[in-house]
Amino acid sequence: MTDLNTAIREKLQAAHRILILSHIRPDGDAIGSMLALGLALQDAGKQVQMVLSDGLPAAFKHLPGAEQIRTQAEGEFDLVITVDCSDAARTGGSLPAGRRPDLVIDHHITTEAFGSLNLIDPSAAATASLLTRVLPAWGLTITPSIAANLMTGLVTDTLGFRTSSTTPEVLRQAADLLELGVDMSALYFRSLVRRTFAAARYWGAGLSRLQRSNGIVYTSLTLADRQASGYSGRDDADLITVVSSIDESEVAIIFVEQDSEHVKVSWRGLKPYVDVAQIARQFGGGGHRAAAGAEVRGSLAEVQERVLRLTQRALNHP
Ligand code: AMP
Ligand code: MN
Ligand code: MN
């Protein structure tokens, strides 16, 4: 066992009250990783609070332990852990004031070591994959409930085992989780395939304005679209995955209006030579080579103009 795993195991053993946090606009890996680690620590006798500042999206309410997720931390903690989260600001203010995480578990290439202990592996397909690998080394048991959460993280971050990050190890992990009795088909359907009617109408608004220029395929989702469709999330309802499937493009971008001064931008690199994490970084965001995001200040029109200009420059288009 590595020194880092030994240090983490000792820290976990010594702690009683543990807080687990993840990122705003949580995805399947954030939620699955949080629940898997939280349930495993509870099984080991720890008191665990799991906090997502944006709360739990309806699409993940079926996961074991999901009812325990809250939007604010309460009380004192011996240990604070972040999962799938690349910096303190991405916890959405749920990190107790003045505190740095004791343990950071993540796989984003842009993550800085902002914890006291940092388990960061950008080669991992998902934080859930990292956890599947290390939980036994930390003396924690993967029960069927924990396996369902880990599987959700694997399935969502690999878009159903089809990203280039899907290694033999990931497929072996999925096979091991299946052997524990996980209903992969149901988890896959619920987290990646099924949509609400409102989400599909929201997609429609975005798709009706789809544009392409200089290798960039892009669209925006406005507050008015959200209201008209009845979609309740502040995200793109995963429209970026649909737009990413469009042929003969190098980068896909979606702009989601948050309010009159903030826009959430998502990039997807559609060619192996494109590194969108570096582009997102120029806007204070981050992510992976092929998938990155940032929260950019400005009106929708301003942000769109700036982001398209700098993305074009990064692609070496005049
Ligand atoms: P998204 O476009 O939000 O689906 O995110 C794509 C990838 O970039 C995910 O791995 C996110 O965790 C990461 N990401 C998104 N927004 C940010 C941000 N503001 N800072 C750092 N990483 C981000
Ligand atoms: Mn995530
Ligand atoms: Mn992830």
Gist?
The longest helix is centred in the N-terminal third of the chain and has 16 residues, at 28-43. This protein has 318 residues and is of the alpha/beta class. It has helices at 3-14, 28-43, 127-134, 144-157, 168-179, 184-193, 197-207, 223-229, 239-243, 276-281, 300-314; strands spanning 17-21, 47-51, 79-83, 103-106, 117-120, 211-213, 216-221, 251-259, 262-269, 286-287, 291-297.
Please describe what this structure looks like:
The chain is an alpha/beta fold. It has two domains: 2-192, inorganic pyrophosphatase (n-terminal core), CATH 3.90.1640.10; 197-314, Diaminopimelate Epimerase, Chain A, domain 1 (Roll), CATH 3.10.310.30. The protein is built from eleven helices and eleven strands. The mean pLDDT is 96. The strands form two sheets. Strands 6-7-8-9-11-10 form a six-stranded mixed β-sheet, sandwiched between helices. The protein has a five-stranded parallel β-sheet with strand order 2-1-3-4-5, with helices on one face. The radius of gyration is 19 Å and the shape is globular. It has helices at 3-14, 28-43, 127-134, 144-157, 168-179, 184-193, 197-207, 223-229, 239-243, 276-281, 300-314, and strands at 17-21, 47-51, 79-83, 103-106, 117-120, 211-213, 216-221, 251-259, 262-269, 286-287, 291-297. Helix 4 (144-157) runs antiparallel to helix 5 and helix 7 (197-207) runs antiparallel to helix 8. The site of one manganese (II) ion (MN) has 6 residues, from loops. Residues 29, 84, 107, 126-127, 157 line the site of one manganese (II) ion.
